């Protein structure tokens, strides 16, 4: 996005009267990141804004806020800092408040980009891992576990500094907070620890395991485990040993193999107990100092039974009996034989031997019992059948069977909503204790009914109703309607009350608030008035009489507005009605006097035979000149 392009609907150019958005620089699973200018401190910052399509999900909003809260409590040069947080108000284009956070702007590449583009040597790998470990040490000292350490969440700035970011699923270290409480395994499959894969409680050593996976990929170019699905990768984290880095990449020095083996141990107590210890071992290996496990154990003292020993070795001033060829009973000596001392030593030896035998028996019993307990622990257990149980009952039954439970939801036509549909692996399968079993809960039928009461509602109300019904809004079209206000719903496509698949798009048909003027030409007055004032038209008729001989009397020949034009309900339509033009009224002819009658007779007698004298009307109409009176001449 350049500076001249418009921002997404609902995102203002200026946030909090301080941060001016300039361009889009990144897009994640739940939020977009924009480059902005802080006008108060005159510096570039990164503004992370939750996207409108995820803002309605409370889990996503809580995760976003938890990230801001977790990072705000940390202050370290290897952690991307958070400067400010807030919420954008709801707008016409989006109805949810959008949380945002203002972060440190880092120019550079993610470690994922570096791995895909460049060949990485051991010195750079150790340097990056040391920066991540220093960030984790600070985070762990503040009781914050990141839980998603991976190359995509590590930035390498242009100056070469390492920055750990995205604490979106971090949480405070709390013994009461376990992974199973959220009914979901969080993290990224290639990098999360065995305890995360099993859905168990996590601690700082889970982050150290993930940092080990990151170092493994830096050295070899690939994560320690890969697979076709996250589930298969998770199973490998739990039950398989990754190959040594020197076996995967021939140019890797085997000096790093024992360090990687320790940091990727399945049991947390076998790993490095701090991120700093892991980083220190890598630094020593880089300098040629091999890593060795501390195998020092206290020496076991063994009491000598036979032979000559001095007091410094045995702790006893035992004196050897004199050697003789005679039986001691019959031997005579100048000095008395110290038989009491010999009996004392012999009794002590017997006592110590009995103690040793008892210790061996107890140790053997404990070893055998430990082997039996381990065998019982590893003995597979059948997964119980939980179909049609409630989520709580099904989860309790599975936990009682020593399984960890991960809950997911799915549509099912045969099982009622909020009831268990199945497990993965399926019921009856033999599985090791403390394995993770996925419990599927029904969301009911996948078919959703388009609400019938959408008609005559506002567009906003209709959108909310469709969202609550598990449907999406598709195209919006408009039709004329005399009874429904402008931009209110006339109907839908598919039609109201129809059943559709969950998540389907439903097109809205909104009212324009206008009607199409009907054509009333050739109708009678009554027919035209009924057509215009019909319920689905709602117009008013006004008849205007117009004199014309071009149409028969009573004919409707023009209208305004014209037919097919649009008008608002209640508008007046003027219609011209033909009436005949009235004929002109003729003028009255005056009665002639006697003298005029004589003159008229004379003139008739004087006129040529067969020629009629003009009638008075012809004279009046100017067709012929009037006859001359006496004395007036011709």
TrEMBL record:
One term of GO molecular function: protein serine/threonine kinase activity
UniProt biased composition (Basic and acidic residues): 413-422
Segments traversing the membrane: 348-368
Stretches assigned to coiled coil: none
PASTA domain boundaries: 377-443, 444-510, 511-579
Annotated stretches, region: Disordered: 413-435, 559-634
Gene3D superfamilies the record matches: 3.30.10.20, Phosphorylase Kinase, domain 1, Transferase(Phosphotransferase) domain 1
Residue ranges, compositional bias (Pro residues): 581-593, 624-634
Domain Protein kinase: 19-286
Entry keywords, A to Z: ATP-binding, Kinase, Membrane, Nucleotide-binding, Repeat, Serine/threonine-protein kinase, Transferase, Transmembrane, Transmembrane helix
Protein name: non-specific serine/threonine protein kinase
Lineage of the species this protein comes from: Bacteria, Bacillati, Actinomycetota, Actinomycetes, Micrococcales
């Amino acid at each position: 996005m350049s500076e001249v392009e418009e921002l997404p609907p609902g995102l203002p150019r200026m946030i909090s009267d301080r941060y001016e958005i300039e361009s889009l620089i990144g897009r994640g699973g739940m939020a977009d990141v924009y480059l902005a200018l802080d006008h108060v401190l005159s510096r570039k910052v990164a503004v992370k804004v939750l996207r409108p399509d995820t803002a309605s999900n409370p889990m996503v909003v809580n995760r976003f806020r938890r990230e801001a809260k977790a990072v705000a409590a940390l202050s370290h040069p290897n952690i991307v800092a958070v400067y400010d947080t807030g919420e954008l108000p709801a707008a016409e284009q989006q109805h949810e408040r959008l949380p945002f956070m203002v972060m440190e702007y880092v120019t550079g590449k993610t470690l994922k980009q570096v791995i895909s583009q460049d060949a990485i040597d051991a010195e750079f790998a150790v340097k990056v891992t040391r920066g991540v470990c220093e960030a984790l040490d600070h985070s762990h000292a503040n009781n914050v576990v990141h839980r998603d350490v991976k190359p995509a969440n590590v930035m390498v700035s242009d100056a070469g500094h390492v920055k750990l970011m995205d604490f979106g699923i971090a949480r405070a270290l709390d013994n009461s907070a376990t992974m199973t409480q959220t009914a979901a395994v969080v993290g990224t499959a290639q990098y999360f620890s065995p305890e995360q894969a099993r859905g168990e409680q996590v601690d700082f050593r889970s982050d150290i395991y993930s940092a080990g996976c990151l170092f493994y990929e830096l050295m070899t170019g690939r994560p320690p485990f890969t697979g076709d699905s996250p589930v298969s990768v998770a199973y490998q984290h739990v039950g398989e040993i990754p190959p040594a880095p020197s076996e995967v990449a021939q140019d890797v020095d085997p000096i790093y193999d024992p360090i990687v083996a320790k940091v990727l141990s399945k049991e947390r107590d076998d790993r490095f107990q701090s991120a700093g210890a892991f980083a220190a071992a890598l630094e020593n290996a880089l300098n040629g100092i091999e890593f060795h496990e501390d195998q020092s154990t206290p020496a076991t003292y063994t009491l000598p039974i036979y032979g000559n020993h001095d007091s410094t070795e045995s702790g006893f001033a035992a004196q050897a009996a004199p050697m003789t060829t005679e039986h001691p009973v019959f031997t005579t000596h100048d000095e008395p034989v110290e038989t009491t001392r010999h009996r004392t030593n012999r009794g002590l030896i017997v006592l110590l031997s009995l103690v040793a035998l008892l210790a061996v028996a107890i140790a053997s019993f404990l070893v055998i019992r430990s082997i039996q307990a381990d065998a019982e622990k590893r003995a597979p257990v059948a997964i119980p059948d939980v179909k049609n149980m409630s989520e709580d009952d099904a989860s309790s039954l599975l936990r009682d069977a020593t399984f960890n439970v991960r809950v997911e939801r799915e549509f099912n036509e045969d099982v009622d909503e909020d009831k268990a549909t199945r497990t993965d692996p399926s019921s009856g399968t033999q599985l090791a204790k403390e394995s993770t079993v996925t419990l599927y809960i029904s969301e009911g039928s996948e078919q959703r009914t388009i609400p019938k009461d959408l008609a005559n509602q506002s567009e906003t109300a209709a959108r909310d109703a469709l969202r609550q019904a598990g449907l999406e809004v598709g195209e919006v079209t408009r039709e004329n309607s005399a009874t429904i206000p402008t931009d209110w719903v006339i109907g839908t496509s598919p039609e109201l009350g129809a059943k559709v698949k969950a998540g389907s798009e439903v097109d809205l048909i909104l009212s324009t608030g206008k009607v199409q003027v009907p054509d009333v030409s050739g109708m009678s007055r009554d027919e035209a008035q009924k057509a215009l004032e019909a319920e689905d038209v709602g117009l008013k008729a006004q008849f205007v009489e117009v004199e014309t001989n071009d149409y028969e009397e009573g004919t409707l020949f023009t209208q305004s507005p014209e037919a097919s034009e649009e008008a608002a309900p209640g508008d007046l339509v003027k219609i011209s009605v033909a009436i005949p033009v009235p004929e002109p009224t003729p003028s009255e002819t005056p009665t002639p006097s006697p003298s005029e009658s004589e003159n008229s007779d004379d003139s008739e007698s004087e006129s040529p035979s067969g020629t009629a004298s003009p009638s008075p009307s012809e004279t009046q109409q100017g067709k012929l000149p009037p006859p001359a009176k006496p004395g007036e001449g011709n």
